[in-house]
Fold this sequence. Notes:
Strand content: 25-35%
CATH topology of the largest domain: Glutamine Phosphoribosylpyrophosphate, subunit 1, domain 1
Mean pLDDT: 89
Number of helices: 18
CATH architecture of the largest domain: 4-Layer Sandwich
Radius of gyration: 23 Å
Low-confidence stretches: 1-17, 483-488
CATH superfamily of the largest domain: Aminohydrolase, N-terminal nucleophile (Ntn) domain
Oligomer: single chain
Number of domains: 2
Largest sheet: 7 strands, antiparallel
Amino acid sequence: xxxxxxxxxxxxxxxxxxxxxxxxxxxxxxxxxxxxxxxxxxxxxxxxxxxxxxxxxxxxxxxxxxxxxxxxxxxxxxxxxxxxxxxxxxxxxxxxxxxxxxxxxxxxxxxxxxxxxxxxxxxxxxxxxxxxxxxxxxxxxxxxxxxxxxxxxxxxxxxxxxxxxxxxxxxxxxxxxxxxxxxxxxxxxxxxxxxxxxxxxxxxxxxxxxxxxxxxxxxxxxxxxxxxxxxxxxxxxxxxxxxxxxxxxxxxxxxxxxxxxxxxxxxxxxxxxxxxxxxxxxxxxxxxxxxxxxxxxxxxxxxxxxxxxxxxxxxxxxxxxxxxxxxxxxxxxxxxxxxxxxxxxxxxxxxxxxxxxxxxxxxxxxxxxxxxxxxxxxxxxxxxxxxxxxxxxxxxxxxxxxxxxxxxxxxxxxxxxxxxxxxxxxxxxxxxxxxxxxxxxxxxxxxxxxxxxxxxxxxxxxxxxxxxxxxxxxxxxxxxxxxxxxxx
Length: 488
């Protein structure tokens, strides 16, 4: 059985104990505001992005060439206190929360990452994943760069530093380096007198621009802007570099063939439901997923529940569309985090209930539809279904507000290799039998895209289809893909 690293590098978690969800790479935040406590604003910015990464957190602050940085393993609230934030004084701040998809979970891989150049330091926070990271790192090593981590992010910042040291200015050097990068990247960068932000030519990972008292803010999601009282202005466009200085914001389009392919899982699951995409909260999109799911796969049940918290909006939409009562059937312990204390055998046998506990008096004797946003391996789903039956549910029907996940992601989501994805090996009927439900239906691919109410060609849905918008090197692809074709 495969072991997984805990936040401090110890092999204590078995594969079957991992969260049965795709896990996002990172959250990034940046602000340019001379004369303002930028470190504290960055703290509250990444605090709002904690859901995007819980392994490490960091903030770097620049005041001219003076660089101060603090980063550690752990949650934002554990890594920073008033004393540390008071030390981080300057005019430019870059913050990061990390979940590792490349590089192991250790402090050397925490961000922001730094490069020293002839023009001063540059700090960088990265969300996404390069598919040519090994090639880029090899080029840099040949050119005598010393790389201290195993992340692709360090390769990007060193590539920028190399271009600057070769005589380019910050803008030209950054663009030159970006053109060497292939894959998904939303970047926030700080230099001695500027804040910069960019997205890859497909815009797979989100990045937004906000305004606070005449100063500009960059963040992965609008919820981070809301947390500090900033107003959302617009998204950074795919293939765009924005440069923020004292005189304002300037835009540079550096990619010749930019084509929007936002990760659809950002909308289904990763981003917070109060974040805005396509000019509306993702809560509304997720309730529409549930409404369409009810049209495609109704259920003759007494009540509808969601798997908290990610399945709740779709469950509300599903219940509303069918005119069936929605109820809380599972109570989530929101204070369950990573722990070195192992549960007793009896507690392990109780399974999911440390995190989700069923309401017996709500469920007893009821025919229940339970809504979730995805099934990856099926391990958690099976435990949840058993808990509902133990609580007295008469029937349990599961509905999933996304299509079957049949392919791994190479663009910054930590999905398993294909042989670990249950929908790549089993039909929906077989999965239903495996997890113990009376019926199981997934939302269709067409329904998922229709719910966006936007151009359906502007999304990456490779984890459902296997059609990758950015070419994947054979070595990387073969490491995660099964040779045989998945079940259709």
